[in-house]
Structures are given as structure tokens and as C-alpha cells.
Amino acid sequence: MKKFTIITLPEHESIILESLGKARITHLIEVTGPEFERLRVAAEIKVDYEDLSRKFHAAYESLLDPELFEPTELTPPALELIEFADDPEGKVNELLAGMDEAKAGLEEAEKEIEEVKARIVGTGGRIACLRALEPDELRRCLVVGVVEFTLLPRLEEHLKRLGDITYRTIEISPDEGFLFVFGPEERRRWVESIFLVFDVKDIFNVLGVRDVLLVLDLEIREGTIKKYEEEIKKYEENIEKLRNERIKRFAPILGMAAYYDRTLRILSDKRVPALRTKMISVIQGWVPTENLPDLQETVRAVEEKIGEQLFVQYEDPSHEEEAPTTRPKIRPKFFEPAVTLTSLRGWPTAHEINPSMITLLVFSLQFGMMFGDVGQGLIFLILGIILSRKYKRGLASKLGAAFVPMGIMSIVFGFLYGEVFLVEGIIHPLLFSPLHHVMRLFQIVLGIAVLEMSFGLVLGAINEYKEGNIAGVIGEHGAGGILFFVGLFFMATEFYVVMDFMAITGHWSFIMMMVGLVMTFVEPILSAVIMHKKLNFEIVGEGMAAFLITFIEGLCNFFSFLRIAAFALAHACLALAAHALMPVMGIGGIVLMNVIAMTFEFVSSSVQALRLLYYEFMGKFFQGTGTPFKPFRIRKEVRETA
After folding, report:
1. pTM to 2 decimals?
2. Are 1 and 317 in contact (CB under 8 A)?
3. In 339-478, which residue ranges form alpha helices assigned H by DSSP?
């Protein structure tokens, strides 16, 4: 991991941030360093870019008309960018005033276009009416009007009440049509009153007197229709002309607004802890070593765009700095979601071994020892494969990635214990039956506990060395702890044989255990002398604390692993219960016990395996105080414009 520092003029900051956001290879951090701290105190400017962005974006969105055109972003002149960097709030207010004028102009232009559209609608209605009306019907009808089809059913009820009234409709549009009413002259006033009640438009509201006369004159009607069609064509050409003029006039304004809207959005991003002054802007962050050429290429592209050279510095992280760490590349990729198993405990630092795959294997091993059953393990294996194939992200994908190794380990120990769906005797145990070899089970579990914790202490010693604490290799998280646990195991084994505590104090295992405790006492003292060149009673007290912690915590950790044997026996007891229920419930007894095992016992075993993983195992080497590498990217946020 490399630390980078970019120093630029304020007007170029948003361009750099946009390029870094598109590259997605950098993790930005708060600017640090003694030279920058002095600059921060003396010249840093504070601008509420978030408020400016929200206000500007609301005005910008009110100008947008997606049906008309999408604005092409325009880059302002260099002098204008300098003005913006020098006084962002003043420049934004100036832009907002200009956008208010543009909005008024757009509304005026839109009003002109709507007026022309209204003329097109009116002329089109006349054409439809002229084509729909027939001269004979117009001569014979008592009353004719334009009716909305939604009102027609109720209107028909009134017209049908008199037997000497007939009517006919001709569609003008999907919503309305002509209504011709035929009958004796004395019915005219009655029909006209009905038209008035139902708001039937008079034909002269749609057609003028001249147009009605044209209906009666077939020779010149077609010529008039053609004339109206030409008028519509001219109106449409006029609309297109008005739209083009509007685009030509307002496209530059919207293009500039688009640039400032994007720039303000970038500068308002709280994930950009840039140091901003009136003279310079400073951006710092981390980049993975393998992505360093990509960052250098990104910087070169920015320099070509702005026509100036940037100050860029790369350096290795110091021991005081905590560089972020990237997600491990797990192979096979199928197990990638299992990184969550480690991240729940914390995130590894740059100096720590990333234990993602190790934790998955250790967790699955511990679970399998407690939940050893071929049949039940096969079900969880199949379920894990199904979940992993169906879900590529989310909780289901993580469960799938965990269920697969858990199911495999359960199957393995099921063969070792000779158990299939809580039934013993179907297969011969390759190792032993837990219920019939309890002490042997305890001995094996404690042996695995020592191997597991010793492995964790080896990883702890490596981490201590990588952090520069050479003396830490022999302490409680190194060789001293390993000697203590190995000696403790063999001392416990010897005590089970002789059953005499005083006798085992002379055994070599007791001496090994005490040597390990002495090494844990000496390690803090050596570290202080080597690294800090000092020695006092406080440091000696730290050594004594390490001695006592290793002894007390080590005993708790060692015997805590007996919970594996306890749950393995509990699983075997469920098999006994299923066998006892067979005479009463038949196959139902086995089904019931399997349901209990695959729900309550499964959850309990998983929780206990996690407890042993996080405390007894990972506690020996894993601090989890690191920061995950989060690539900076530009977000397209949806803001409220209210």
C-alpha cells in the first residue's frame, strides 16, 4: 500500500476528484502532516458545499426539460473557475440569478409554443368536423351539437322518452362526436334545453358560420380542408423553429449549469476530506501497490486536461500510520462471502495476517466435531450449494458459503463417529463412538485445542515480528504461550495417569509450562529495553501482568474447548433418545430428534464454534483494529428539490 499526496490549484480540485472517482483505486483520508497542519490552522477555508449543492441542484432541475434535449456539459473558462474557487458562495449566487432569468425566458418561450399548439388543435378540430358532417344530415336535422361520449348514455335516456325523436352520432375523436337529433319542429326548444343541461356544445363553437356553409357546398369543402392542413403544417414548422431557437439560446446556460451542478456534488461529498485554502487544495489517500501505475496514468490524463503539472508525492506508510487493507482474494471464489466471518470480529491491519480462509476452516472443524452426522451434514452441504448458486450477495450468499464447509466437516466426523441421521450401526465408526469413549473424546479434543491455539500463537508471533516487535515473538502471543499450552496438555495427561499433583510438579511438562510463563514475563521487559531504551517498576509490573494473564486466561482457554466434547456427547444423546422413542413413535421418533438436532442443536453448536473461534483462537493473534480499503467513487445522488 502506498500513500499519495496531490497538491493542486483550487479550481482543478473537482476535476481531480472526478478522475479519482472514475478510477476507483484510491482510498481518501484526512490530510495529515506537520506542514499541512500549519496550513490548516492559518489558511483553511470552510464552505458549506452541501448546502450550496442542494440549492443549486434545485434551481438546475427546474430548468431541465428532458423532452426537449439533454444538456451537454460545458467547461467554464479558467478565469471563471478561479472566481468560483476564490468565492464559491458568491459565484453560486451569481449563477442562480442568471438561472432565474433563464427560467423566465424558458417559460416565455414555452408559452409561445403552447399558443401555436392550441392553434393546431383548433384547426385540426375544424378539419375533423368538416370531414365528419354530411350535407343531407345537416339539412334534415332538428338540432346538432358536439357531445362528450361520457355524457351520451344519460343524454340518450332523455331523448328516448319521446317516440317521435331519433338521433345519430358521428365520432370526431375518441372523446367526443357530433350528435344529430331528428324530429318535428315543435320539439326543437325541448331538445335545445336538454343540450343546455348536459353542456352539449353548439356546433358554432367548433365550426364558424362559414365552415357550416362549406359543409353544404361539396365543391369547395375539400379545398378548404387542404388549406387548413397547410396551416397546420406551417404551425408545426413554426414550433420546430421556436424549439431550435430555444435550444440555441439556452443550451450554453444549461451546459454551464450541468458543470457546476456536478462540481458542487463532488465537492459536497463528505467522503472527500480535502484540505482547501484560497491558494491550494491538498488531497491525500492510499492506493494499493499493484494499482500505482493506474493512478499515475490517471494523474497524467488530468494534467493533459488542465494543461498544468500537478504536485504528486508517493511514500510508504510509517509504523505510526495505519494503512487500510484490501479484501483478500479468496480462491476458490465460491468462498468469498466467508470474509464476513472475520470482519465480524474486526478488520486486519496492514501488518496482520489476513485470516479469512483460516477462520472459515477452524470454525468448520470445530462445528463438525460437535455436529458429526453424515446425513445431517449432507443436507447442510446441499443447502449451502443451492444458496450459493441462487444468491450472489446478501445474507443468503454468506450462509451458503459457510454451510458448505460446515456440511463437509459434519460428514467427515459423522463417518469418524459412525452416525447417520442420529442412527448408529448403519456405518462402522472409523474412529470411535463419542458416547462409548468419553475420556478418549476429551483427550482428543484437548489435543486439538493445543494444536489450534499453538497455531494461533505462531500467527501471533509472525504479526509481532511484522510490527517490528522482535521480542514479542517470545511472549504471550508467541513462543512463551506455545510452551505453556503444550506443557499444560502433557501435564494434564500425566495427571490423569498418576492422580498426584505433587508428583507432576517434577515432570518435564510442568517445567516446560513454567518456562513458557517466565518467557511471557520477560517479553515486555525486553521490548521496553530494545524499543524504548528504558526499564522501571511499571515495566516490571507489565511483565508480571503478562505472566498472570497467560496463566489464568490460558487455563480458561484450554478447558473451554471441552465444550466441543460436551456438544458431541449431546448429539450422541439425541441418537439415544431417538432409539428409545422407536418402540412408541416408530420412525416418527427419529424424525422428531433429527428436527431438534437440525434446528436447536445446530444453532447452539454454531454459536459455540463462533465463541471458540473469536476468543480462544483469534484472540491469540488477531487485533482487528484495521480499516477496510474503500475505493473512492463518484455517487449519483438523488436530491430532494423541495
Report:
1. 0.67
2. yes
3. 339-343, 356-370, 374-390, 395-417, 438-466
